[in-house]
Amino acid sequence: MHAKKMLWGVGFLLTFSMSACTAEPNADDPLDPSESALAVDTGDATELGVKFSVTKPTTVTGIKVYRSDSSVRIGSLWNVATQRRATTGILQPGSQSGATEPTWVTATFAKPIVVEPGESFIASYYSPQGTYSVSSGVYAAKKTDGPIVYPALAGTMTTQAGQMPNTAGSSSYLVEVLYEGKTSSVPPTTAGAPKITATASTASSISLAWTSASIAQGTQYTVRYTASGSPTSREDTVDASKGDGITLDDLTPSTPYALVVFPTATSSASVALTVSTKGNAVPAGLPIQVAVVGDSNTTGFKGHLETGIQTGYAYIAQVKGYIQFAGGWARDGSTSAVMNQNVTAVPTAKVTIIMAGTNDLTKNVTDAELESNLKSISKKVGAPNTLILAIPPFNAANVRAAQVNVSLKSIAARNGFAFFDPWTKHRTADNKWVAEYMREGLHTTKEGYRVMGLEVERFVALKYAGFVVP
């Protein structure tokens, strides 16, 4: 069987095992960092991983992650060329053994996956709070581990939840690929490593803070920071042993900064972070007034939108403020026909945002009826622009839900409406819910609606105001 078919065509039920390994360095293990790993806390959700290929057909049995805390993580295996994802499940040591100290956690596929030469893959895990371990310089050059080849700059990460990590760096985020015949490695030591928190304080400043009971009094750290695209760096120092923080001022708004933190006396045990400063004030033309129409995935599966935003679960209640609710109608269980019967004009709206089709699917509404209702809703609201949103994953009817989205895209094109899919971070390749965002197979969590709402806000602000939401 070809690798692609097996990799993306099976379900993944996992069994977990974990053990606290000794911190003795293993000179025979190519993945054992030569320097101590540092525990990092950025506060931003992050996907961290390692890129690899194979020299011969290889049976991948799972992934192994060195965890610096006990928060929930979800493992993934990605095909780099197609960016298709196989979700492994949850890496959660705290719930399995009560362990909260740094340790390796292993997620084993219930059915091993065969990968073959000629393609690149990424093994990664999701850290919802931005807490992870990192060791610098591990992938400064290519490394091999049996049939597994880790190229130079194999370390990879992204702060876009649910997306394949796409950076390339020499730092290791302590993710291993497990395969048949692989012997267990030991974890690096984290003794004396400070836990770092980076926060964008204002549009022109970033605050860092760290503490560690094991740091010797008087230890100084240097922070080197570089704006994206800038050829020059700046540096500041701080006494980490006192638990002090440092504020980096006079920075450029809405700009990513690469931060490297290391002991002033040596360049070893450095930590690499990327933090973006906050955006400028909202420019002219924003916020964009929007009318919102939909069903339970618009209300957030709580309350309704008939008399304003009723709860904080609705996606429109969780945006940053570049779009603003001007009116509309949404109630749980509504078909497009019910929405059309109840919606009224929203004179101040610049854009009508409609998400309809899930309940139409369950009631076998035809594409012609759906199109007629969407056209009527747009006309009744009266906004100069209409945006049709894709419906979310539907585990019990995943194929039919995907077909509805194809129909919605065609309907939008025929009628001069815009179409956008805000659920790409929530859906798997077969149009089912990603584990971290699934409630019961039809709806998502409050966090899931927040993530979806931010995607809608970015699209609307860029399309109708030419503004890139930071």
Describe this structure in words.
The strands form five sheets. Strands 3, 5, 6, 8, 10, 11 and 12 form a seven-stranded antiparallel sheet that branches. A five-stranded mixed sheet has the order 9-2-14-15-18, with no helix packed on it. The protein has a five-stranded parallel sheet with strand order 22-21-23-24-25. Helix content is 17%, strand content 34%. The two termini are 44 Å apart. The longest helix is centred in the C-terminal third of the chain and has 20 residues, at 446-465. Helix 4 (336-342) runs parallel beside helix 6. It has eight helices and 25 strands. The protein has three domains: 3-20 and 37-179, Jelly Rolls (Sandwich), CATH 2.60.120; 195-276, Immunoglobulins (Immunoglobulin-like), CATH 2.60.40.10; 288-465, SGNH hydrolase (Rossmann fold). With 470 residues, the chain is of the alpha+beta class. 44% of the residues are buried.
Topology:
Elements lengths: L2 H6 L5 E6 L18 E4 L4 E9 L3 E10 L5 E7 L4 E8 L1 H5 L5 E13 L5 E7 L3 E4 L8 E3 L2 E3 L4 E4 L16 E5 L15 E8 L2 E7 L8 E8 L6 E6 L5 E4 L7 E8 L7 E6 L11 E7 L1 H4 L23 E8 L5 H7 L8 E5 L2 H5 L4 H15 L3 E5 L8 H18 L2 E3 L25 H20 L5
Parallel strand pairs: 2-14, 21-22, 21-23, 23-24, 24-25
Antiparallel strand pairs: 1-7, 2-9, 3-8, 3-11, 3-12, 4-7, 4-13, 5-6, 5-8, 10-11, 14-15, 15-18, 16-17, 16-19, 19-20
Helix pairs in contact: 4-6
